[in-house]
Amino acid sequence: MACLWQYYELSEIPCYVHTMPGLLKVMETFVACLIFTFLSHTSLYLHQPALEWCVAVHSICFFPAALTILGNLIGWEYRLPVTFPIFRFLLTLLSVLLYVTALVLWLLYQFNEKFGGQPQRSNYMDCIDGLTYYICTWDEELAVAILTALNLLIYVAGLVYWAHQVSVGIED
Fold first, then answer.
1. C-alpha closest to that of 106 among 136, 151, 170, 162
2. Average of per-residue pLDDT values in the chain
3. CA 24 – CA 171 distance, rounded (Å)
4. How far apart are CA 47 and CA 32, in angstroms?
């Protein structure tokens, strides 16, 4: 196996996922998939339209990111009416703005009592029993909040990268 890695230098294999923007896109989609696993329990968000918006934001940002990866891998980036770096910059900017709203709304409506949230884990009946073998509701809410913040940071890193690329005029 080591001989194969020495034979194939990663820098010699042209692939989108070996670049910084490709790696960021893969990380964005991976974290979004993790978020979706915690959102599989619809009881976390169906009671509030603001929380439903948060789920919509995750979906709105996930599908273009996945399509960007696929489009670049199969060579569709040249079929866009604008240059691909500008398209990715605008897409990342939109995703950052949407993720900011999702993070703020999720934190307010899940953990602030004024908006119907529960700031303490002990307020949930399924979290009281220490012998449970599953993740309780409050833990799922917290996991979604942490992963949303993490994905926001990844999108901000992508935005900084693309702002630099577009301002300098460098193609990746």
1. 151
2. 79
3. 16
4. 22
